[in-house]
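Troubleshooting log. The previous structure file for this entry was overwritten by mistake, so regenerating from the original sequence record. Sequence copied from the archived sheet and checked twice against the printout by T.R.
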Amino acid sequence: MAVTLWTSQAMTEAMRAAPNGALSDAVTGLSIDSRTVLPGDAYFAIRGDVHDGHDFVDAALKAGAALAVVENAQRAKFATDAPLLVVDDVLGALRDLGRAARARLRGQMIAVTGSVGKTSTKEALRHVLSAQGPTHASVASFNNHWGVPLSLARCPADIRFAIAEIGMNHAGEIEPLVKMVRPHFAIITTVEPVHLEFFSGIEAIADAKAEIFAGVEPGGAVVLNRDNAQFGRLTERARERGIARIVSFGSDAKADARLLDLSLHATCSAVHANVLGVDVTYKLGMPGRHMAMNSLAVLTAASLAGADLALVALSLSSLVPAAGRGVRRVLDLRNGEATLIDESYNANPASVTAALNVLGQAQIGARGRRIAVLGDMLELGPAGPDLHRGLADAVNAANIDLVYCCGVLMRNLWDALSPAKRGGYAESSARLEAEVVAAIRAGDAMMVKGSLGSKMKIIVNALERRFPGRSAADEAAG
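Regenerated output below.
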């Protein structure tokens, strides 16, 4: 039986809405997509960049939605007895409901931002904290102006831990979101040169990330990467906001959560760290030094929130990547197997370098090769060509055997590669698809990565269609 998330009366009061029709007492979920509405949901008719949610209200109600939240200006479109909550602005009403959800929450709230690793860190916190009590976290990358209030409004009142991911690509975007979230603890994973198209430089990016401090609850703490060059600037911004407790993580000798030893393996890592004065040795179920560093932030924030540190460390052994962020699949080829690493969700110079390092650790067969398939990194502004060209150093350092490049910007990397490392080049993923599918052979490990706008998922999907296989996680479990 579905659990009541909101009563229609509580929603009416929180959103200052006008009720219409016969409203169900219980609302069991919230949706902004009529295609995924479940019986008992409240459907919010949000205006998007392409579609207006009001065009799908009837479909949502037919799918079993308990009610729809619509704007007063479009009320006349619907039946006089339709179950509606009528408001002046639907997105504004969703924000109001998010604030009401935060106001009733008695658990600990953690907010996560950063140039790289936001979603992976949020998912790791969800994983480890769920083992210690009722936990709520945003789904996927719901970290923007509609994703954050929707995630907040979906938060049950009786959970012990809540995690909110907050993103941005312009200055001024984080502050209004974090003031809704009001975290007890805020993590900035790192500050790197991303979204440079919209910023004057790395310091401006750090200042934009530092907006997360604006919403930290009195007496709360921030968790910062001491190894990052912007640590001092972030610390200064936190103090300007009146935050006294600044907790650091990293390999730096002064870090409060310090990496002492790290053993990297193809599909996992062994970590020895000292976290807030406690020695911890644990297996991390995801490979890569960057993941190990972010695991320190997870251990730190979870401990600050009252979780058992030893159990958190134990839970990290069963951590798996989020979709498009390092998920592995074993592909069945005609004469053997190959490994596909799906990193197609997003890309920037720091995350591509980290992914290349992970590929460099991947196991290959006797005649196998480590192959990188890379799409354009977007929103880098005038620095874009140089940043793409500079990836050649990371390719060489990771001992990648072959690189396929996709996109106008990735042409800069292609030109910088030695002839022996050039696999193929095309201006789009659709044009590169057939060449990559034809190139993979038994024993290979292939990693596909690019910004979402580069549409590298097309190549991932083509490989999985052509060579049906199985999840590498399933294989490990077996």
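The first strand starts at residue 6 and ends at 7. Archived copy saved in two places this time.
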